[in-house]
C-alpha cells in the first residue's frame, strides 16, 4: 500500500513538474539556422567563467506555426516561462507593452550600425539585441539564363511573348539588370503553358498562400514602383498605381500559368520544393533559403531583387532578443542580452550559421567565411526598406489583412478594386 | 426520497458536477464578460464594458456569415457523402466481412489517424513536386489539376474529410446492419424477393434510425471542422476555406480581437444549442410515434 | 455467386486503397532518402532507407520525439481515464434513480456537439492564471471534457443493462451502496470501461486544437509536434523526416484501432443509438 502511494506521489510530481528554476530561459526562433546559431552562442556564454550557475542560459524552442500569436498571448498573460524572448521588427509594437527596454554593450553601435539597431527600436527605446536580418534575394538558374542569352531564336520568341502578355517587346537580359517587367517576361518565357518548349514547367513560383510572411516577400515588388502603406501625414496609400501595377502583374503571371496553379496554397516550404525540383527558372525568396536552393540546384545564383521605376528594393526585417517584463531572472537576462550585443558574440553567432546584419569592420572580419553576410549587409543598407507603419502595434494584423485580401484577388475570389477597398478599410481601423 | 438517499445521490453526482463547474463554469463566465467588452491582449486585465457591441460587429461582418455558410455547406455535403458511401460499403461488403472480419480493421484505419495529421498527409500527397498524386497525373495525362486553388480547394477538403470519416458512418451502419433480424430477410429470400428489393423495402427502413444518427453526428463534426483544413490550407486564398472554428481562432490569435472572437463563439454556441434541442425533440417524437 | 465475391473483394480493395492513400503515400515518402523525394515522387522507392526514422528516433536538440510521445501518452491517459472515474458513480445514480436526467445528462451529452473552439479561448485565459498552461495535466483535463459525453452515455447504457435483481440480491445480503457498486456493478461494467477507454484514448491522442493553443514547449503533444516539421515561413521542409514523424505519431492510435476494431464498432452503436 505504502509503495503504491509512493509511486503515485512520484507520478503526480512528474506530471506537475514545472520549469527548471533559477536559470535564464530564452525563447528563440525555432527550426532554422537561427536556432543552430543561438545554441552555439549560448553554449559559449555558459562556458564563461564570470557567468554564475544561476545565470546560465537555457534555450526554449517551440514551433513557427502561430509563433507570434502564442508569444503574444504568453506575454499578455504575464508568462514567466521565459526571461528573454524573440522579437521581430514588425511585432515590437505589439509586444512592447509587456517587455522592458534593455541596454546594449558599448560596442553595439560599431558592430551593428544604426540601421540595424533601429530594427529593434520602438518609441525611441531599444527593445532588443538584433540577431538576424532577413531580406529577399532573386534566385535564378544560371544555366538556363545563360542558354537563353546565347540563343537568338529564343530571343525572338521571348520578345513575342513579352509583347503579347506585357504589351512591350523585351529582350533577354542578365538578371543583374532586370526590372520587374523583365522578371515577368522571363517567368512567362520559361513556363510550358506559354512556351511549350520551355525546359522548366514554370518560369517562377510566387508564394500566394494567405499568410502574412508571403506579403513580406511580395512587398519588394510594389515598393520599387513607389508603394507604401501610408504617406508622411499618415494617410493610407494602398489605392495607388504602384500597388495596382505589382498586384496585377502577379495576377497575370498566376493566370498565365507562369507560377504553379497551386501557388495560392504555397508558402516557404512548398515554393522551395518547387524550385528544388528543377521545374522553376527564377524566384524571389528569403535569403535564408540560399543553402537549400543552391544545394538542390547547383547552378542557382542569388542576387538582389529586380528594380522598378523608383529603384531597387528589398523588404527587410530583423529578428532579435528582448526582455520579458515578467521575467523572474531579469538581471541574468540583461547580462546575457548585453553580452550578445558584443562583437565577440556577434562574430560567433555569424560563424555558427546565423545571419546578423553587421557593419564596417565586423562585417569585413567575416568576408572570407561568410561572403553572403557581406551581401546581406550590402543589400540591407542599399535597398532595404520598412513600410511606413510596419513597426506599429498593429503591423502584424496589417500584413494579415493584406494577405487575406490580396490572395483573394490573385485566386480570383474578388476583383482588385474590392481587395484594395477592403485592405484600406481594415488598415484604417488598425492604424488609426 | 429519504434524506440519506438524497445525500448519497449528491455524493455520487459530486465528482462530475464539481469537475464541470471547475473546468467549464469559469470559462463560461469569462466568455460572457469578455464577450460584452472591448478587449485586446493589451487590455486583458481591464476589459471595458461595451454591451452588445461585439455581437453587432460579428453580425455585421460578412466574413462571419461566409464562415457560417462554409461550415454549413461543408457539414451537409460531407455528412451526406460519408453516409451514402458508408451505407454502400456496410451493406455491400457485409457478406465479405462476415467471413473475413479483419477487412473492417483495414477500412477504419483513416478514422483513427489524427485529422491534423491527415491534413499534413494530404499536403504532402497533393504537392505538385513532392506528392505522388500530381506525379502520376503528369506522368499519365501530362496535366494535373490544381487541387488547392480557389476553384478546387472546397472540393478537395470535402473529399479529404469524406475519405477520412466515411469509415465512421460505415462502422456505425455495419454494426446496425449486423443486428438486423435475420428471419425477415430469410423469409423474404424464400419468397423469392430480389436482394435489391429486399434492401429497399425491408433493410433500409430498419436502418433509417441509425442512418439519421450517423448523418447528424457527421454533420456536427463537419460543421465544427478545424484540424485538417487548418493544417492543409489554413484559411485559404482570400479566406475561402474559413470554417466557423477557423474564423474564431483567427479572430482570437491572428487579429487579437478577443471580444469579437468570443461573441462569435457565443453565437455559435446558441446556434448549436438550438439545433440540438430541435434534433432531440424530433428524435423523441419519432420514438414516441 | 463467384462473380459477386470477386466484385466484393474489388470494392474492398479500391475503398481500402483510396481511403488509406495519404497514409500509404506518407509511409512511402518516409522510406525515401532525402534527395529522392522531389526527384521521384512516385509510390515506387528507388533506394529504400530507414534513415528518416533513425533521425526521428534519435534525440536531438531540435527534436525529442519521446518527449512529445510521453506528453501525448500522459495527457491521453488522463483524458481517457478521468471521464470513467467521474461518470461511473453519477451514471449509476442516473440509471437507478434518475438523477440528472433533466439537466446534467443532456448537458454533458450535448458537449459532444459543441465546437471545441468555444472553450479554447476562456480556457486559455483561465489556465494562464492557474499555471496550467503548457502542462500535461492541463491538457489532460480538457481532453477529459472532450471524452465526457461518450463515457457518460456508454456507462449509463452498461448500468441500465445490468439486471436489477443482482443488486437487490446483494442488498438483501446486507451490502451497502459502496459495496454494491464495487462488487456488483463495477465488474459488470468492465467491458464498457474498456470500450470507453479505447475510444477516449484515440480521441485524446488525436486532438490538435487544444494542443496547439494550450501548450508551447513542455507539454506539446505529438500531433502538434509533428506539424513543427512543416515550418511556416522558414526552415526547409525535409519531407522524408516530416513523413516519418507523422507515421510515428499516427502509429499508437492506428495499432490500438486495428487491434480493437470490434470494440470501436460496438461502442459507436451503443453510444449513438441511445443518444
From TrEMBL, chain A:
GO cellular component assignments: periplasmic space
Keywords, A to Z, come to:
Signal, Transport
SUPFAM superfamilies in the record, alphabetically? Periplasmic binding protein-like II (SSF53850)
Principal localization reads: periplasm
Q: Where in the cell is it found?
A: Periplasm
What start and end residues bound the annotated signal peptide? 1-22
The family this protein is said to belong to: Belongs to the bacterial solute-binding protein 1 family.
Name of the protein: Extracellular solute-binding protein
Species of the source: Histidinibacterium lentulum
UniProtKB/TrEMBL annotation, chain B:
Question: What topology in the membrane does the UniProt record assign?
Answer: Multi-pass membrane protein
A single Gene Ontology CC term: plasma membrane
Q: List localization entries.
A: Cell membrane
Instruction: Report the domain of life of the source organism.
Output: Bacteria
Entry keyword annotation includes Disulfide bond: no
Matching entries from Pfam families are given as: BPD_transp_1 (PF00528)
Chief site of localization: membrane
Q: Where is the ABC transmembrane type-1 domain?
A: 68-279
InterPro entries in the record: MetI-like, MetI-like_sf
Transmembrane portions of the chain: 12-36, 72-94, 101-122, 153-177, 198-217, 261-279
**What family is reported?**
Belongs to the binding-protein-dependent transport system permease family.
Official protein name in the record = Sugar ABC transporter permease
Q: What is the lineage of its organism?
A: Bacteria, Pseudomonadati, Pseudomonadota, Alphaproteobacteria, Rhodobacterales
Automatic annotation (TrEMBL), chain C:
Keyword NAD in the entry? The reply is no
Highest taxon of source: Bacteria
Q: Which UniProt keywords apply?
A: Cell membrane, Membrane, Transmembrane, Transmembrane helix, Transport
> What Gene Ontology biological process does one annotation of this record name?
transmembrane transport
What Pfam families does the entry give?
BPD_transp_1 (PF00528)
Signal sequence bounds: none
UniProt xrefs under PANTHER family:
INNER MEMBRANE ABC TRANSPORTER PERMEASE PROTEIN YCJP (PTHR32243:SF18), MALTOSE TRANSPORT SYSTEM PERMEASE-RELATED (PTHR32243)
Under which name does UniProt file this protein?
Carbohydrate ABC transporter permease
Q: Which organism is it from?
A: Histidinibacterium lentulum
